[in-house]
WYL domain-containing protein
Amino acid sequence: MTERELKRMRSLLMKASDPDRYAARIQYIDADGKVTDRIISPIRMTTPTTVRALCLQREEVRQFRLASIRTIELVPAHEVTMGRESEW
C-alpha cells in the first residue's frame, strides 16, 4: 500500500469517526486470509497503520490493520445503524 493510499484511507476513517453522520463499509482480509465485508465506526487511530473501531457485525470493538482493508467507502450512519425509514 502506498503512502498516498494510506493517507486517503486515514482521511476517510477520520470522517467516519463521527458516528452520528458516517460509518465505513470495508472489505477486510481477516487473520485466516478470508475477505469479509464489515461496517465499522472508527474510534481512533491507534498507530499510523491501525484503527480501533466498533465492528457493527460483531458488536465489538476491534483493531483493524489498514494494509488489510481492500476497499473503503463512507456510508450515512442512519443507513447502517438505525435501518431505513421504510423498515420502521
Observations:
- Residues 26 and 72 are 4 Å apart (CA to CA).
- Residues 3-80 form a domain with the SH3 type barrels. fold (CATH 2.30.30).
- The chain has a mean pLDDT of 87.
